Amino acid sequence: MNTEKVTARRLTAGEVSELGVQDAIFVSAEMDGLPLDCYAPAFLSEPGKNSEGGSFATRTVFGEEIHVLPDNADERGIWVADKAGEEIEVLRSAGVVLNLALFVPNGNREALEALYSAARDAFGAGIVQRWSEEVVEVPDVKVDLFEEPVRGRKSASQNRDRRALDIYPTRVRFLEPSEGWKFIVEPHKEVVDDTPTI
């Protein structure tokens, strides 16, 4: 584990209630029920004054949602950096997890294994891991992606914004429309420039 020593002090519930969502704190680094004997950088999920019953919702930089009762002696509590405090062990990120969707033209098992081997060679055999794998046959076609307002008046000419042309349908699955807009996916049409030339 990649950890470092940080000087910090434990906060009372009253002190936590004065914090906002932008204030950096430290909470237990447990992940999915896995107890880790150290702390993780975190932030309050909502301002401390909005919490009820003395329980504060926090979110670590690793995406774990943890509810803490700061005054409970059986819990690790909420800590804040303070040079006059005591030393605690804080878990630091050693890397990132990438969720990749790869389109392999005429893909077969040998091509996927070659990709995996190349990634292991580049980053190290113990670093690159396949946690889950879904092999799906996808048509080798491209689409044009537009956005239209969710609530458009039928009488008015429908205005649309071009989001992306000439992309694969599988990539569209991982995109999100702008707020108040919806996606319109159409078969790809080549853009023909019919401007007269001299």
Radius of gyration: 25 Å
Structural class: alpha+beta
Largest sheet features = 4 strands, antiparallel
The amount of beta strand, in percent, is 25-35%
Low-pLDDT segments: none
Q: Could you give the count of β-strands?
A: 10
Strand order of the largest sheet: 2-3-4-5
Helix content: 10-25%
User: What spatial form do the alpha-carbon principal axes imply?
Assistant: extended
How many DSSP helices?
3
**pLDDT averaged residue by residue:** 84
Distance between the termini: 68 Å
Element string (H = helix, E = strand) = EHEEEEEEHEEHE
Give an overview in words.
By secondary structure, the protein is α+β, with helices and mostly antiparallel strands. The protein has 3 helices and 10 strands. It has helices at residues 13-16, 109-123, 169-172; strands at 3-10, 25-28, 39-44, 56-60, 65-68, 79-81, 86-91, 143-149, 161-167, 181-187. The strands form 3 sheets. The protein has a 4-stranded antiparallel sheet with strand order 2-3-4-5, with no helix packed on it. It has a 3-stranded antiparallel sheet with strand order 6-1-7, with no helix packed on it. The protein has a 3-stranded antiparallel sheet with strand order 9-8-10. The longest helix has 15 residues, at 109-123. The mean pLDDT is 84.
